[in-house]
Amino acid sequence: MARILSDNNNLLHSWSFYKTINENILSSLLVEKLNLLILGTSDTNKLILVDTSENYKIITDYRITNVEDTTDSFASVLCMESHEDKYLFVGCSDSLIRVYKIASSSLQLLHTIYSTMDVGDILSLKYLDQYDTLVIGTQRCCLLYVTDLLKSSKTTGPSAEINLTESAIADENDHINRLPSKRYDKFFDSIGPTGNKSTVSSRSLSNATQDDNTFQSMNIIQVPKENIVNFAHNGFIYCMDTYFDEKDCTHPTQYLITSAGDGLTKRWVMEDNCLYLKNIIDINDDITGYGFSDDEEEKENDAVISQFIKFPLLFQGISDMRINVISLLTDRLIETINLSELNVFDDHLSKDESLPHAIKASSNNDNILFIAANDNVYQYNLDEDEENDITDQKLSRRGSLVSDTKIIPFIRSIRSEVNSQILNICIDGNKLSVLESDGNVYLFDLSDTLKCNTQKSLLNEDDILALNQKNNTDENDPNHNSETLIKDLSKFISFKTTADNKQQIHSCASYLHTLLKKLHSTVEIFPNSLNGTPVLKATFHANNEHLANNSKNILIYAHYDVVPSSVSDSEFHLFVKDGFLQGRGVSDNKGPIISMIHGISELHDAKKLNNNVVFIFEGCEEIGSIGFEETLKSHLELQEKFDYIIMSNSYWIGNKYPCLNYGMRGVLNLQISVEGKRDLHSGTDGGIFSETTKDLMFLMSNLIDYKNNTLNVPGFVEDSETQDLCKDETRFFNDIIATGEGNVTLETLIHKWTKPSFSITSMNGSFEQSIVPKEANVTLSIRTVPTQKSVSCLKKLITEKIQNDFKILNSDNKLKLQVLNEAEPWLGDFKDRIYKIASEELKSVWKNDVLLIREGGSIPTLKILERMHPTAKIMILPNGQASDNAHLQGEKFRLENFFNLKTCVKNIVNRL
Amino acid sequence: MCRFLIYKGADPIRLSNLLTKPQHSIINQSFDSRLRLDRRRPINGDGFGLAYYPTEEPSISIKRHHSDEILDKILNKEDSEKESLWSENLNKEVEREEQEVGPSIFKAITPAWNNENLRILAERTKSKLMFAHVRASTYGVLSETNCHPFNYHSITFMHNGGVANFKKVRRRFLNELDDEFFNIVQGSTDSECCFALFVHILHSYGYDPSRSKGKFGSKVLRKVMNETISRIKYWTKEANKIVAEEKFKLENDQEFKRKLSLTKIKEIQESKEEPSMLNFAVTDGESIIVSRYISSKVDEAPSLYFSCGSDFVERKQGEFNMHRVDKKNKMVLVSSEPITFERNDWTAIPTNSLLTILKDQTILLHPIIDEYYQKNPLFIRDSGFSTRKGQMGYIPKDDIVNADGKVIKDNSSDINKYSAHVRFPAIPPLDSERRDHLI
């Protein structure tokens, strides 16, 4: 009867719980619900199963032991939960919750919990160990909870009464008569009009007359009426999970997340032995672009069937084989994984029945989720290992990776004649057990699956020792010494915070959040108004008592996202090699973040911080700081007044001299595309139609003034050509040339930093020799300088020019212009004292001259911050060397720079 | 007075498994109603009604198409004209099928247990969505037009309970309705007027109740149901006001009393201010809203239970069990009283709340929060009123409990705690709430 399982070398064992009593009986009767749970470690593997019609079964070493359940009640077990492998909580359809102590091969009943309210089935249970409280989710949409459950019973023994408030009526007989199965019910205890109960089911009867001794021997707990949260949801409460939030590092708060058939997710917290609703996470209420249209306003939310928390990510299984990924940092929906779109399913189950029944992960490596859905278990790699299948990956236009191998069926060839489903899975250590609806239980070995993702150790002790000796950090302070910094950075780098990888972005923000708290700052999180990416604000208040009065407000901006790595997974591991840190984002911008926050925190811890320092971290910088300005504007908390703004994502001009940056060019990336109706063949169609490529060439040649190396757009270049550099700048430029840094000439510097430029960065058309493509496009990257008109103005001029030219063509094709990216140029006030102070500090730390530089690149955030804080002085503090290879393969950051930045920032901030 | 039963499932169920076979099936309830011990007349014998939505089988027309094609090939008739004619017919057929969205309805005024047609029909019919109702008339004559469920295009509706003193406000009540919906009312029951009001409100919210595809969505239906209840609540207050006014006048205004006949005086004296009992069920053929409501803060509404699971199986003759294999409901039963005696299978719907059954059988439960809402979930409402109205059992547990009011043995201490008045069920419910809205 068992299904055929092949190709699964990792199948350890399977059990079949078919009961072939009578072949004439309906098949659905044969198999009643089994529930299972794995307890114990991987070597003393123990499975607890419940066969609802009879009793519990414990499987130890593949042998089944039946455990007599003295409280047999014909009820189905609907949920089980264990605590520390010592206690077992079981929720049943008879509205009772049973608490067992797990012995070697038996279960000892400790408590039976009931409520005088008719709560229906018990659907979910969660034990909050921090509060010794069991929370119970019911069919009646209410939450019940019992406090002081295990701890007090340990000391006072099972006979002691727990609920003092109820003690007046707490004699045991009373409890017995109040149990849901015993208490008088108008219907079930009724006699018919004929005066007899003859029609009452024999099963119910035996139930009611069961010997009371069994009940007397155990401790019965009534849920006190204060502990009932009526209508906690409007649907069946299917899922409960907890997580710890390290608000205060020494006392993390345990939160409870419930979700239900009404599609809502709620966060609860215990205070003074009471359960309070903290907030509702209504993902339909968001503005992330995943929101619902007006049409669907009339639709109910999708019921949440299963749930798993990998903080800060909450995975929720909903109907139609979808999994919502919600960030518990921002309470927003960040992604919906649609399993049914993955073509990994057989269609033999109707859509209605397609459900992700359970989501679990191994505690050994929770980067792989296992999802029980339909008739298979799917393996979902949170942290896709790109080394495995490089050939399968497509490179999307922005250079990000799209992996096709994120979700794979775990049980590879599984076929069944019956429409059986995977109902539940349990993972403990390296073992996965699977319960199938037709009564089979399988046990798999996961060691192979989990092995490939084990973390490599990146730093050895010797390296760290060497570091400590080399650098001028205070090694007596364990919070801020080199080792801590490197460790923090290593963890920080391991998050693949590319724009597409929302889950990693949120996880990384959560890590940063925790770290900043650990460094004693006040942290707040704001979801990005456009896409929900967390924006973090960390505040260190000035605490130097001698200088408390006139402290300044300083904003330090940085970003924790990185450009996608197109090469390999190992980019996201930190290496230390030859005095360099290596890894994606190590220089741009994660390394600087770690050294700066540690620097400020060190001052703060020593009570020597003279000025108020606010860090703002965003996660969308690499994709043009989308929504950053809107986010700042929509939160009053982000609109404090600042005297100085410091940014650190930029580089020295060379590798030797420290630099300060006071100018950036603006950018306008424009895609020009010409679109026809279809592909044309040069033979059959040539000469008849307007051709996309020809049109595009015409536009481009009209736009570009090759002779003067400029654009044929009136007003693009103004009289700036004639404008000479001011005296100061000439001096700076000459200083740079004198040092020989970057091997530049005055000519190149002037062109690179003070003149506009344009480049054609991509051209797309046909790849066939005789095919005229349906669409052809060109991407122009135009850099602008402050002496020109503003970027928005230039944008208008350029698009008008192109559109007018296209009109001349009188073509049948369509022209499309798309602005991919834009940022205004920026020129800082290098005469301000911040530049003077910074220059002096850099000089003293690096023992070298400081160069004042500009850059040819662009940072959109600069202008955003300038607009938000028009009175603040902005300075860019470059920290990496020119050879850092930011955005490229093998990004690195010199250790010396990493540690010196900490010192520089400390000194600069304190002197401002 | 009445009993109803609702089935909604992913798979069609044979109606006999609900209507006739189970121990306490609705047919059995019609002569052995456990929760209404109106011992004089414990039977719901004044007719019954059944509405079931046909299972959609779009494949039928395609199958026919296929078989015709084969036939054509056999006869070697490659007649394009015929082909086009055929597809035209097919289109018409599809169109017609789209229009026929409403349920099949079967009503009779004979007692349900005696109806041979019903027995055979139930044996031969399967449906995914069924409403059934047995009636014990208290209001309105015995006629098929007075039998529930009521239907308007895709919408089906039934009621268990009654609008208090409806006679006093019926004319004004109906006056509120648009002509179109006024004309729905063919019989003489308060229930049908409530249905007309429901449809009227649905229309006033901007939805065309006659639209062929139905499917207004559970959110809309719930909103409309809430509004319907709140409007009926208003009329109940109006009706009770009239009753109280008449009584007050009778006692204090001799002039008024002198003009009345003895019968009229007696009628006024016997009339009472009462809450309305509004257990409604409505469906648009896709989702279902059921209310359990009483316009009183201390009384219990007529009984209502639900049961859900994966399969409803017959363990042995007449003994059915609700099986649950996984979390998702494959079927839902809602019934005025359980149709089996399996305690664990049934959950009472709390008084003054709305139960929603979604298209995919997900159940939602919303409290109706108004002046009659009880915040304390353990508050024990007085079932005396519903009992007297024949809506709720008042059966002593075997012989142990005598008739002095200490009936609810298991909850006696809670009663002392929360509602002292329960011990004196003789006090009319509205008086015990001291609702002196008149004077």
From TrEMBL, chain A:
A single GO BP: glutathione catabolic process
GO cellular component term of the entry, any: cytoplasm
GO molecular function, one term: glutathione hydrolase activity
A Pfam family hit: Peptidase_M20
Keyword Metal-binding: yes
Keywords: Hydrolase, Metal-binding, Protease
Protein name listed in UniProt: Peptidase M20 dimerisation domain-containing protein
Keyword Transmembrane helix: no
Family that this chain belongs to: Belongs to the peptidase M20A family.
InterPro entries for the chain: Cyt/Met_Dipeptidase, GSH_degradosome_Dug2, Peptidase_M20, Peptidase_M20_dimer, WD40/YVTN_repeat-like_dom_sf, WD40_repeat_dom_sf
Domain annotation Peptidase M20 dimerisation: ranges: 662-797
From TrEMBL, chain B:
SUPFAM superfamilies from the UniProt entry: N-terminal nucleophile aminohydrolases (Ntn hydrolases)
Gene3D superfamilies with a match to the protein in the record: Glutamine Phosphoribosylpyrophosphate, subunit 1, domain 1
Domain of life, source organism: Eukaryota
InterPro entries per the UniProt record, alphabetical: EgtC-like (IPR026869), Gamma-glu_amide_hydrolase (IPR052373), GATase_2_dom (IPR017932), Ntn_hydrolases_N (IPR029055)
Domain Glutamine amidotransferase type-2: 2-368
Family annotation (CDD domains): YafJ
Entry GO terms, CC: cytoplasm; glutathione hydrolase complex
Signal peptide: none
Coiled-coil region list: none
Pfam families noted in UniProt: GATase_4 (PF13230)
UniProt-listed PROSITE patterns: GATASE_TYPE_2
Keywords linked to the UniProt accession: Glutamine amidotransferase, Transferase
GO BP annotations listed: glutathione catabolic process
GO molecular function: glutathione hydrolase activity; transferase activity
Protein name (record): Related to Probable glutamine amidotransferase DUG3
Protein's organism: Hanseniaspora guilliermondii
